[in-house]
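Q: Could you write out the predicted structure for this multi-component system? I'm mainly interested in how the pieces pack against one another.
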Amino acid sequence: MPVDVSKLSGGSLIIAWQLKDKNVLLVGGGDVAAGRIENILIADARITLIAPRSGLHPQTKAYIDATPRITYHDRTFAGPEDLAGVDMVLTAIDDVETSREICAMSRALKIPTNVADIPPSCDFYFGSQVKRLPLQIMISTNGKGPRLAHLIRKKIEDSLPAGIENAIERVGELRTKLRERAPGVGGDLGKKRMGWMTDVCNTWELDDLALLDDAAIAKLLDDGWEKGEVPRPDEIFSTAKRAGQIQLPFSSLVPMAVGFFVGVACTAAAVHRLSARR
Amino acid sequence: MPVDVSKLSGGSLIIAWQLKDKNVLLVGGGDVAAGRIENILIADARITLIAPRSGLHPQTKAYIDATPRITYHDRTFAGPEDLAGVDMVLTAIDDVETSREICAMSRALKIPTNVADIPPSCDFYFGSQVKRLPLQIMISTNGKGPRLAHLIRKKIEDSLPAGIENAIERVGELRTKLRERAPGVGGDLGKKRMGWMTDVCNTWELDDLALLDDAAIAKLLDDGWEKGEVPRPDEIFSTAKRAGQIQLPFSSLVPMAVGFFVGVACTAAAVHRLSARR
């Protein structure tokens, strides 16, 4: 089985970095910093923000006021002492020289670092992101077309079904409850659990998964897992619950309408020709 | 402008880690390791692979044979000396105890580490990924529904226009050529460059961007950038080049066909009723 590795090049290692209860140092308080703050808070980290108050973006100010998870210092970066106990460094300031100095110091301490606008000083880059927690989707063009990444993000956002985040949460809950019923790591039971979860996710629509409340999860485990089967959603839910829930995505409605009117027009024209001949 | 930070939680920091010419230690050679190898090669890193030959997956073997970027050692992990000069550690072995020991050693050296199947020993997780280099899209459900992440990846893959990677490459080339014409970092010129690129990406279809060869890029810069305008694709390309290139995505064809036949049926029924009345 020979493989062609010649095309395996030119990318990044896209990863979900874990920051829960970690300390992130953010130097700078402008609009780029405001975007960084949202990304860091989502990851459950604490932020130390160093930036003169005069340069704070309104959104940055709002974040500082909104959460005790940000410790704010109204000053510029002071030196290596600011890096003590820090797990990640992000800078978003206009001063290129200071940015490079901070980068050198934090790299010497092996702290992962991102310096806005100076790619060679970055251990990692950010990309366009869809945030529908717990779902996160990141689009990177590896620096070739940030604007296209933004367009692709919008397309993906528009195409995601409403309530997909609920479906994922409910499936997470189902997995947790399943593990309580059939505990243990790995082995045959682990494989059976994984297989059954896969079957549920493959046969149920996202809309139905999103409806899984505690009662429905219990019923699905009783009537499904215990019997080695995957019940249909209509076997688990009352008819009332699913009523009105089936929706055509908007993206299908426009071509369907176009098709309808073309169909009407064609048939009308054909009928007209036939009548004219008679 | 008060912000609600209560929902900013439960996620990860999704980043594009840079590994060009870095050294990645991979311990283990099974099917999970084979997947890791592809991800690392894409990011242009070198790999040191430590795993007894008896446990190598055929795909792992194929990678070892295919590229000098993998240095293979037919043995088990030997100790801290295996971590010298290493920039990232990935383990994919069944031995939980050894995995945890490797993790402890590499964390002591502040080397970013991922241990397959043991989340608490991971600085970062992997997710489902669309790889259409230079485009990379990563889908994470933050551990709630890996199977759903896989389904979402397939949906995104199906919805991406054919040739999107070419469009991104060509836009990257256009940016490079534009920077050669109007060099310099930041300032008003930087803003003007970014604004013009944004206008091009917003007004041109991906299909047209993918057609940008060197001649078309030169013409677009001459007739567009130099005059502060964004020419239409038909002003840049000969008619022949664009002919037959406009395609409806398959996802539109089905609803359009459904609409067409419903339209035909409705009109025929209406005509039939009218004729019957006469």
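A: Regarding packing and overall arrangement: The mean pLDDT of chain B is 89.
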